[in-house]
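Async update (no meeting this week)

Hi team, since we skipped the sync, here's where things stand on the single-chain job. The sequence we agreed to prioritize is pasted below, unchanged from the tracker. I ran it this morning and attached the output directly underneath so nobody has to dig for it. Comments welcome in thread, and please keep replies under the output.
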Amino acid sequence: MKKLIVLGMGVCIALAFSSCKSSESAYKKAYEKAKQQELAEPQTTAPVEEVSPVVSAPVEAKVIESAPAGVRQEKLTVVSGVDGLKAYSVVCGSFGVKANAENLKNFLDDAGYDAVIAFNAEAAMYRVIVNTFDDRASAADARDAFKAKYPNRKDFQGAWLLYRIH
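Output:
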């Protein structure tokens, strides 16, 4: 009888130690994943101009931005496709691995686009560009049309505008 009790207690203790996992590791994994996503998508902000107060007659202040709000600024080098990038581009994918970018480019080329892969050395990311334009309004319209053409593709719903820095 004593052997059975000791054996039962041993099994209970073994189960208690093996089934209890530290919740700290789950929190740590979630924190590290969020940190990696934050580092993968660098945030750029447009510079803010200071406007001095006017004492005499009111004067209209003209805000000059290098790129409008909602547009990321990046310095790019074309690595695949025709190097005809204009000021504003519609980016439909970003990859750390060039082969993944090439797969998306091939898909877009088969769909009738002349996709371009450009490399951002600062972020070490390959950007897949579906269209490029001289003005922001045309690029925004093309981005919206692209999203509307592929409503069921969540990855294409994240398409964004890029202002190329030379």
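Quick observations from my side:
Residues 55-67 have pLDDT under 50 and may be disordered.
Residues 40 and 157 are 18 Å apart (CA to CA).
Reply here if anything looks off.
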